[in-house]
């Protein structure tokens, strides 16, 4: 377990995949890199990036609610439900009053059918691969929640809105379904992710700016404290040497305890994040800040 285990907030650019946006991080921080919550190629905005052994904690971040600034284009629908697809249907553009009325029915718990062009697996194969072969894929609906759907601007059949949703929600599907609810058609023409859980886009750095990326590594301690479904533990100084050798501490106290939670962040008394552990197995997953001899007293 290396000391490059970290949490980074980066700004993904449009026109590149989420995977490709990690290339600079691999060179700057650690070749072992993962991200929580994929953004489509055309989309941009916040990505949570985990490096080193911290990649094992993806489950903590991928389940968080998310917020977006969405641009929905009425009057046509594409096969991919985004600007990269082929137009498959056209229709009259609805009035703003019609759009606002329809939006009121897109709040709270809903059942949503994911896009055919998605990474979901159907019968062991990606739905998008089947769709590209011309096969009609029946996408089963699944429960989602829309917490906020606030129109910002509507002009010439183009709606800009702020949308906050639960894990697993496809904004492309919301665009499609909103179009149909307005007796029209629609697709998602632009998307910016502005928030993931307690993390916001204005905190993120450009992954190509090496100095900014390296400076942001210092935020890992603070970012970890924001994870709500995580226990926080304080470890006494005399345990730090064993902790640095990969041994789960024999003594500690809970700063914040989440009943039944699997993971815990271990801090020294000075508030420094030292490691992350699987509390059910009493096993360290990631080591963050190394032990210094003068800390043992």
Label this structure with key terms:
297 residues, alpha+beta
Structure description:
The protein has about 300 residues and is of the alpha+beta class. About 20% of the residues lie in helices and about 35% in strands. The chain has eight helices and 18 strands. Strands 1, 2, 3, 4, 7, 10, 11, 12 and 13 form a nine-stranded mixed beta sheet that branches. The chain has a five-stranded mixed beta sheet with strand order 15-14-16-17-18. A two-stranded antiparallel sheet has the order 5-6. It starts with 5 loop residues before the first strand and ends in a 10-residue tail after the last strand.
Chain-wise SSE layout:
Elements: E1 6-12, H1 23-28, E2 33-36, E3 44-51, H2 58-62, E4 66-74, E5 76-78, E6 87-90, H3 96-103, E7 108-112, E8 121-122, E9 125-126, H4 127-132, E10 142-155, E11 158-165, H5 171-181, E12 186-196, E13 199-200, H6 210-216, H7 220-225, E14 231-235, H8 240-244, E15 253-256, E16 263-268, E17 273-278, E18 283-287
Parallel strand pairs: 3-12, 14-16
Antiparallel strand pairs: 1-3, 2-3, 4-11, 4-12, 5-6, 7-10, 8-9, 10-11, 12-13, 14-15, 16-17, 17-18
């Amino acid at each position: 377990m290396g000391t490059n285990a970290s949490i980074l907030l980066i700004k993904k650019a449009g026109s590149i995949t989420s995977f490709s946006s990690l290339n600079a991080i691999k060179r700057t921080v650690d070749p072992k890199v993962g991200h929580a919550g994929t953004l489509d190629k055309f989309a941009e905005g916040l990505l949570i990036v985990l490096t080193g052994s911290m990649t094992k904690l993806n489950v903590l971040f991928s389940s968080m609610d998310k917020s977006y600034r969405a641009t929905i284009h009425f009057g046509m629908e594409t096969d991919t439900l985004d600007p990269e697809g082929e137009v498959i249907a056209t229709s009259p553009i609805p009035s703003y009053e019609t759009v606002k009325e329809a939006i009121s029915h897109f709040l709270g718990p809903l059942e949503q059918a994911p896009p055919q062009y998605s990474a979901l697996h159907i019968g062991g194969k990606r739905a998008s691969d089947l769709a590209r072969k011309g096969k009609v894929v029946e996408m089963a609906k699944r429960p989602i929640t829309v917490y906020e759907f606030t129109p910002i601007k509507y002009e010439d059949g183009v709606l800009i809105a702020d949308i906050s949703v639960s894990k697993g929600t496809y904004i492309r599907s919301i665009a499609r379904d909103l179009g149909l609810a307005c007796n029209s058609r629609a697709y998602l023409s632009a998307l910016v992710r502005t928030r993931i859980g307690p993390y916001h886009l204005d905190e993120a750095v450009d992954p190509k700016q090496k100095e900014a990326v390296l400076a942001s590594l210092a935020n890992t301690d603070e970012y970890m404290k924001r994870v709500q479904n995580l226990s926080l533990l304080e470890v006494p100084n005399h345990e730090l040497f064993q902790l640095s050798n990969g041994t789960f501490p024999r003594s500690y106290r809970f700063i914040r305890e989440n009943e039944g939670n699997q993971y815990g962040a271990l801090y020294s008394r000075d508030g420094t994040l030292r490691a992350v552990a699987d509390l059910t197995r009493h096993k360290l997953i990631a080591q963050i800040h190394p032990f210094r001899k003068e800390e043992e007293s």
